[in-house]
Amino acid sequence: MLSVPEFQTSPGMRDILPPESARWRRFVEVFARITEGAGYGQVVSPLLEDLGVFQRIGDATDVVTKEMYDFVDKGGRHVALRPELTASICRAFVQHRPLTPWKIWYTGSQFRYEKPQRGRFRQFDQVGVEVLGADDPYLDVEIIALGWEFFQALGLSKVTLLLNSLGEPDDRARYVDALKAYFEANLADLSEESRVTLQKNPLRVLDSKRAQDAALVSGAPQIADFYSDSAATHFAAVQAGLTALDIPFTVDSKLVRGLDYYRQTTFEYQGGTLESAQNALGGGGRYDGLVESLGGPPTAGVGFALGLDRTLIACDDEGVFPAPAPEVDVFVVDTTGGVEALQITAALRSLGIGADRAYENRSMKSQMKGADRSGATVAVIIGSNELEAGTVVVRPLRAERNLDADGNPVSNDVRDGAQVTIPRTDLLDYLQKALS
Ligand code: HAM
Question: Which terminal residue of the chain has fewer beta carbons within 10 Å of its beta carbon, N or C?
Fold first, then answer.
């Protein structure tokens, strides 16, 4: 029996192995294609920042108060592994002062000390976009539409879009006061957990999924009654823009999201196949004010991040966006010692033809097993007879043999499923044509 290895990944952390890792890369490539085609450039940020950068996300946010991986480094600096990228991007904006609007996209790992479960990890990956320096409701729409287009490009059809506005900071503050007063007046009916949340952030009580809170939450004051004229106009324009693009959405006045920096527009994409607590594939909104809190000038900001893990779980559940097929076209089987395989694979690779081989001069049978596993289209086989005759055998690995109406092979060509023996000197030309 195999013993349990001494070292394994920590809870909530995983190795992403092939072919899943190729799927991850493809995921990011699709995201890059869509965002770069809309004028966004990639920012690569450090995994580690001064703790203060993330504290600006807000001190009523669990991500900041409970889930941060922070420590004092050897130089005495209090640093943290990033729990998200929006604060880092705002820090970078203040540091580098790029021209506005600054339209950027990113990808990478985030770290949150959460309770691991399906779709919830301690190290997880996101892709996202942020735009700094433009306060245009149609920019909110552009951003939401980019995320929507991305889900479509993956083949997902069950994603839904929830939309809300938290109003301007003053509206939000008045609303929070009203919520607090409302819940405090009904404290006896509120669950114990929500009473604790109420002290920290009354808005988050609206997030409660506990049955005991349901009636109170549904009767709570509505944010829409607190909008200033400009907040109402902004929100109306966002909805009109989404309608103009035929993007379906539902206004959900209880959508407050987990991070404190949001103002005005907030939105969330939901997957429809995961447990409700993990059903958010991604979300975002406006965060005018975050750049200022990091020492920059007043700057409008809007963006979103999508969880790679959760979105890929949604893809699995919907049976779309499978791992890509292996990139190897040719597998070289050489039972003459291995030098032939060394030369043939090198020549094929330099022509841009994916080529793999077996090692350790194994038996023909064992090398052919490797060929089957590789996913290659053809095997090139070279044994002592072929070596002596200056030939190679090209054997199709996946094609069915094509037969005519009389049951005879239609041709003596590997493209028709035939195994062929050809002069070694013709091999590269032959494969270039056969695989093109
Ligand atoms: P967030 O809602 O905290 O927003 O995270 C965005 C997405 O990251 C979630 O919807 C989810 O798919 C994924 N995610 C979050 N936590 C975990 C976890 N523990 N395990 C797996 N996936 C997870 C933000 O991070 C904001 N920075 C989004 C934003 C950008 N707002 C404005 N700009």
Answer: N
Q: In which order are the strands placed within the sheet that holds 70-72? A: 48-50, 78-81, 70-72
The helix/strand/coil state of 203 is helix
Cα 108 → chain centroid = 9
Interval between CA 282 and ligand 1 midpoint (Å): 6
Rounded to whole angstroms, the Cα distance separating 337 from 125 reads 44
Gyration radius of the chain over CA positions: 29
CB atoms inside a 10 Å sphere around CB 43? 19
Number of H helices, E strands in the chain: 16, 16
User: For 134-161, how does the pLDDT look when each residue is reduced to its tens digit (9 = 90+)?
Assistant: 999 999 999 999 999 999 999 999 999 9
In terms of DSSP H, where are the helices of 66-136?
A: 86-96
What are residue 302's DSSP bridge partners?
A: 131, 286
Q: Quick check: CB of 83 below 6 Å from ligand 1?
A: no
Provide the phi-psi class of 281: left if phi over 0, else alpha when psi is between -120 and 50, else beta.
alpha
Give residue-wise pLDDT tens across range 209-230: 889 999 999 999 999 999 999 9
Ligand 1 atom having least distance to the Cα of 128: 30
Relative to beta strand 263-270, strand 280-286 is antiparallel
